[in-house]
Write a structure and sequence with these properties.
Blueprint (H helix, E strand, L loop, with lengths): L2 E5 H14 L5 E8 L5 E7 L6 E2 L4 E2 L2 H14 L5 E10 L7 H12 L9 E8 L2 E15 L2 E14 L2
Parallel strand pairs: 1-3, 1-9, 6-7
Antiparallel strand pairs: 2-3, 2-6, 4-5, 7-8, 8-9
């Protein structure tokens, strides 16, 4: 089973963003690389951005801000660090993907701009004193009778101090 290697500092930053916006949703982007064994290593986290919209059951990031941050990291690392996927919160909820989350993952996977046909989506759920994190990787989707069926992989998260 593949793993997501997530630095403690990035997890603390995610929880900080989540607690600051609670009870509204928030989120951002994970950057890093995929190792030869298909484990994923997160190295950078981008927050929601100053013009993001936070609502009780919806989050819309500041896309312009996030794009500039992605480009900055890409340039600084000579292209070694790239887009892995998104993260967002489910305040007072559970750390599973909603149907909207699954559709979003499919859209990201099909977008040529992301250059990632197997993006991650991390869901941080709960309350400020107790956040739970689950991470999923999109593998593929197929449609049958107007209904989408998603094949996703759940990644084990390993926290570490770089």
């Amino acid at each position: 089973m593949a793993k997501l290697w997530l630095p403690n500092e990035l997890f603390e930053t995610m929880k900080s963003h989540a607690s600051a916006k609670f009870p509204f949703e928030t989120g951002g982007i994970l950057l890093g690389y995929t190792a030869d064994n298909q484990d994923v290593v997160a190295t950078h986290l981008i927050g929601p951005g100053p013009n993001a919209r936070h609502e009780k059951y919806r989050f819309e990031p500041d896309g312009d801000f996030q794009q500039k941050e992605i480009e900055k990291v890409f340039r600084e690392t000579g292209g070694r660090i790239t887009y892995l996927g998104d993260w967002h919160t489910h305040p007072l909820g559970v750390a599973v993907l909603s149907s909207t989350d699954k559709r979003t993952l499919e859209k990201i996977a099909r977008s040529p701009e992301t250059q990632n046909c197997h993006p991650l989506m991390a869901v941080l759920a709960g309350i400020p004193a107790r956040w739970e994190l689950n991470v999923f990787r999109f593998l593929f989707a197929h449609r049958k009778w107007f209904r989408a069926h998603y094949n996703l992989e759940s990644l084990t998260t390993k926290f570490y101090a770089p």
